[in-house]
Amino acid sequence: MSEAVTPEPFGVGLPLDTQVSRPRAGSVLLEVDGEIDTLTAARLQAGLDEALDAARSEGSGVVVDLSGVTFLASSGLAVLIGGARRVAGFGARLRLVAASRAVTRPLQVTGADALFDTFDDVASALAAAALDVAPPPGVAPPSGEVGR
Amino acid sequence: MSDAETLDGMSTVEVRTSATAALIPTIRAVASDLAARADFDLDAISDLRMAVDEACATLVDAAEPTSVLQCRFLVRPERIRVHAEVEAAKADTVLSTDTFGWRVLQTLADEVEVLHEAATEGRRATVGIRLDKSAGDVPR
Q: Which residues belong to the signal peptide in this entry (chain B) (predicted)?
């Protein structure tokens, strides 16, 4: 046998990118791109924590955009379910944008889809999230450029 | 059943990697490709890809650090059987099946089974998972 080598992290899998933004008043958007598995679930957790902390302190609704996710393993589902529970703790629902089979199938086959409000596109999810909370005083409600 | 465990001249593919999570994306891509070529429906392709990922992740967690992860795909009419195996971290390593990931695996596959083999002379103990997935929701 050859000598024991410490396996180097080897970037075969696509990296997972997360980005938090506030595309409109009253909502925090977490965009996720890449593959969510045991290697990258921690990065999803960090992004989700950041988004939920921001939403909590700003009194905003949260949307998690999974449009760019090409694989979702149980480790990622567990993170999303944890997020749904946390949001349920402050009386809201976690909103997911999930259009591709890579995301919708894992949600459906595990029954986890019942824990989320799922949307086909970001605009409708944001419109729904904004209804969660009254706009802060002094901020004009957004005009009808988004949603349907 | 035993004949299905050998390279029998039918459509059998074996992938061997280091038992590291970083290489599981490669294995699940092979699973997905084989299912697509075997005319699995789109949900079944997605399920198999996820099931193989789940099985491999479970095994990597239980593997001896320098182990090989051996993953054999037996492509049959209307179904694929997957047999994945690693050398166990310890002689008494047992796969835990009371996890969320295991429940998901059971949901995704038609059948799933844990395989433990005790160490023999010149061979470490192994842990494995065998799973079966059919091509789609065909009446059986």
A: none
Report d(CA A125, CA A94) in Å as an integer: 10
Chain A residues touching residue B47 (CB < 8 angstroms)? 105, 109
- Top pLDDT among B26 and A8 is at B26
Residue A57 has pLDDT above 70, yes or no: yes
Instruction: Report ipTM for this prediction.
Output: 0.89
The CATH number that domain A16-132 falls under is: 3.30.750.24
Answer whether A12 touches B (CB < 8 Å): yes
Query: Which secondary structure element, helix H or strand E, spans residue B114, and what is its range?
Result: strand B111-117
How far is it, in rounded angstroms, from Cα A76 to Cα B7? 35
Residue B1 forms part of a structural domain:
no
Q: Which of B99, B100, B86 is nearest to B23 (CA)?
A: B86
3-state secondary structure of B83: strand
pTM: 0.85
- Looking at the partner chain, which of A10, A11, A74 has a beta carbon nearest the beta carbon of B101? A74
pLDDT digits (tens, 9 = 90+) for B44-66: 999 999 999 999 999 999 999 99
Q: What integer is the mean pLDDT of B40-44? A: 96
Angstrom distance (rounded) from CA A9 to CA A2: 19
Structure tokens at A71: 């694989």
B63 located within any domain: yes
Of residues A130 and B61, more confidently modeled: B61
